[in-house]
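Hi support team,

I submitted a single chain yesterday and got back a structure, but I'm not sure I'm reading the token output correctly. Could someone confirm the output below corresponds to the sequence I sent? I've pasted both exactly as they appear in my results page.

Thanks,
R.
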Amino acid sequence: MATDSRRPRPPVALTIAASDSGGGAGIQADLATFAAHGVYGVSVLTAGTAQNTRGISAVEPFSPQFIRRQMDAVFPDFRPSGVKIGALHDARRLRAVAAGLRLHAPANVVLDPVLAAKDRSPLFDPAAIPLLRRTLLPLCDLVTPNLPEAEALAGIPIRNQSDLRLAAGILADAGPRAVLIKGGHRRGAVVRDLLFDGRRFIDFEHPRSTSRARHGTGCTLSAAIAANLALGKGLESSVREAIDYVERAIEAGVFPGRGWGVPDRFASVPAGRLTPSTGRRTRARRTPSRKRR
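Hi R., thanks for writing in. Yes, this is the structure output for that exact sequence:
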């Protein structure tokens, strides 16, 4: 039997996000997703929510000082190889997280720029969006906005595929190594998620699910990407496998309350439904004059 000192160290991923008392999103969703991927999860809480499957009734943020204390406790000991960032509440908490990232300089930072919950309850002060672009995006390896979040962060309306690529380019210019704009808010039988890695665009297409087990899907996706990166997988593979994982989890979703269902993060639905859209990989073509309009 191996002694404790010889036991292999598990891969570790950190989630910096708010707590969901209903267990469907936030820290709880992230830690379940990490566990499902065989990754040891650690956490830094930015806020607590009074929440169930129907919505949020209250939000209580933690102090910036306590957020920094958590980061300073976790990073030196666990040395996470993947970091997922979720709800940050406001500018003060954002600055605390950014300062901690600059100090500890982790790899594989994935930002899910949560602006509102599924019931549209605000989870981030919109006045702090310019600060997020200026301060946090340059510290991230990947940012994963949905369509409304991408519009808010890029500062342009997204009406078609050309606008989508333009927004991805604008966000990439703000500093992150890559941008994944999720297509779930667009209409149609097929969902198209767009990944821009700074050199090329990659479309991922998958059938739209009719299941209502969609509470916490954004948290789950970004956490799954962070877990895959922590396991040493490349960016494109991490994104592809995470999208497929979320689709399977939605199809096997559970309904523990009387409102929205949640993805089953430990589902064993057969994989393989998702494939990258062939013929849609192109070189990035970004026009400065268009991006500054």
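A quick pointer for reading it: The radius of gyration is 18 Å. Let us know if anything else looks off.

Best,
Support desk
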